[in-house]
Design goal:
One of its GO terms (cellular component) is cytosol. The protein is of the alpha/beta class. It is built from 18 helices and 14 strands. Helix 1 (about 15-30) runs antiparallel to helix 2 (about 35-45) and helix 2 (about 35-45) crosses helix 18 (about 440-455). The chain binds NADP nicotinamide-adenine-dinucleotide phosphate.
């Protein structure tokens, strides 16, 4: 066996011939799907010591089966815009793995969505969901629809058109979508309404992220951001440290970013910068969360509006990376591959000591390698941002028992799940000879959970 440097930082004995053959097969069978290749490579990177210890995984083709989605659905979404013109988008649902439970994962509305993005997200989701310890499989979906600049009526008609096809593939025991980029409470409402209309069933458990008045869970809106911060809080606790007095940069200003900022502030940290796809705002005194929520959640405005309306000196910057703002902790919470090797070098030079992924795969392999070499603690998204899907599973639990829990109770459950994921990552990393490596720990712990279930269920 040769030495293998992982894309996510650690130098472990690893990717043996069998794994390399599997990766080559993934490249051959899924041409052009670069994000999917990246996500698969990252997991295979960690699995060298696992296949050495457990030859049965390779013998029963568990990894090869895991890399092939159980089902991939691509469909046409025709709808009529406000001018009366017919628009056509493409819809996707990739039902990746159901060894642990019904497929679970969000829907993304963004013009960049194509099969490779949905497959990368679905693949990640399998291991993330396994890490939560809850009975949920992995899936993901979405559309190349761009909600920016669309009226409320257009968004509603688009959601109805999408659900007119999707409804036949989903169900509380089959596949349970939720939100992601471009899909929040408003969109989940329109999707649920159309599902209910078509099926004539009030099947609350078919979608998560619902409104509190009609089957939603407390803390679901906050869960991914809060969960990421709880995870970092655990990392800091292992060093006998805390958020108190820390400078933090959070990228994005959507669902994950807003509630990460909220929890950081509650824990005594100062968020000095956040962003959207047009630029970032640097606010040295700390982001005014009330104003940010008003601009982003209520008015669906831009981060430049925040800077303009903010009484204090807040600087709006375009054409530069938000990672240039000095910080102790960085939470990339916008989108995939938004933090590259050069950004990592700047963060390291500025003394950043913890990076946790609020978004899915926001750090490029080069960035992750740089963090590993510099001794920066790095928490991968499949562990750090699992709080969203975990709380979705809690929403499913409440729906199944026709119950609804208090905010405090649900938040405590979330915090305890994040602690559990954190500890499992560390224990597994120790067990496989990479102490302190959250990437190795998350990949192996998630993988073995799913792989054991797949072995038990036979060749299916
Ligand atoms: P969201 O509410 O739609 O917000 C996305 C934010 O990212 C927006 O501020 C958006 O700015 C910004 N953004 C998008 N593309 C960008 C780019 N190329 N460069 C810089 N900024 C960009 O989405 P979200 O739910 O917060 O999701 C953010 C990330 O977290 C995604 O990777 C998602 O998969 C992941 N995630 C979400 C959840 C969840 O529960 N929502 C759970 C787990 C993981 P614009 O408004 O300018 O586009």
């Amino acid at each position: 066996m040769r030495r293998w440097r992982t894309t996510r930082g650690a130098d472990v004995p690893g990717l043996d011939e069998k794994l390399e053959t599997i990766y080559d097969e993934v490249l051959r069978r899924n041409p052009g799907e670069t994000e999917f290749h990246q996500a698969v490579h990252e997991v295979l990177d960690s699995l060298g010591p696992v296949v050495a210890k457990h030859p049965e995984y390779a013998d029963r083709a568990v990894i090869r089966r895991l890399c092939e989605p159980e089902r991939q659905i691509i469909f046409r979404i025709p709808w009529v815009d406000d001018r009366g013109a017919v628009q056509i988008n493409r819809g996707f649902r990739v039902e990746f793995n159901s060894a642990l439970g019904p497929y679970k994962g969000g829907l993304r509305f963004h013009p960049s969505v194509y099969l490779g993005i949905v497959k990368f997200l679905g693949f990640e989701q399998i291991f993330k969901n396994a890490l939560t310890g809850l009975p949920i499989g992995g899936g993901k979906g979405g559309s190349d629809f761009d909600p920016k600049g669309r009226s409320d009526g257009e968004v509603m008609r688009f959601c109805q058109a999408l659900m007119t096809e999707l409804y036949r593939h989903i169900g509380e025991y089959t596949d349970v979508p939720a939100g992601d980029i471009g899909v929040g409470g408003r969109e989940i409402g329109y999707l649920f309404g159309q599902y209910k209309r078509i099926t004539n069933r009030y099947e609350s458990g078919v979608l998560t992220g619902k409104g509190l008045a009609w089957g939603g869970s407390q803390v679901r809106t906050e869960a991914t951001g809060y969960g990421t911060v709880f995870f970092v809080d655990e990392i800091l606790r292992t060093r006998r440290d805390s958020f108190d007095g820390k400078r933090v940069v959070v990228s994005g200003s959507g669902n994950v970013a807003l509630y990460a900022i909220e929890k950081i502030q509650q824990l005594g940290g100062t968020v000095v910068a956040c962003s959207d796809s047009s630029g970032y705002v640097h606010h040295e005194k700390g982001i005014d969360l009330g104003l940010l929520k008003e601009v982003k959640e209520i008015r669906r405005g831009r981060i430049s509006d925040y800077a303009q309306e903010c009484g204090d000196p807040a600087r709006y910057v375009t054409g530069e990376s938000v990672w240039g703002v000095p910080c102790d902790i960085a939470l990339p919470s916008a989108t995939q591959n938004e933090l590259n090797g050069a950004d990592a070098a700047v963060l390291i030079a500025n003394g950043c000591s913890v990076v946790a992924e609020g978004a899915n795969m926001p750090c490029t392999p080069e960035a992750v390698r740089a963090f590993g070499e510099a001794g920066v603690t790095f928490a991968p998204g499949k562990a750090a941002n699992a709080g969203g899907v975990a709380t979705s599973a809690l929403e499913m639990q409440q729906n199944a028992s026709r119950d609804s829990w208090s905010f405090e109770h649900t938040e405590q459950r979330l915090a305890s799940i994040m602690r559990g994921i954190h500890d499992r990552c560390l224990t597994t990393a120790d067990e496989y000879g990479s102490p302190g490596n959250y990437v190795t720990g998350a990949n192996i712990a998630g993988f073995t959970q799913v792989a054991d279930a797949m072995l038990a269920l036979g060749i299916i």
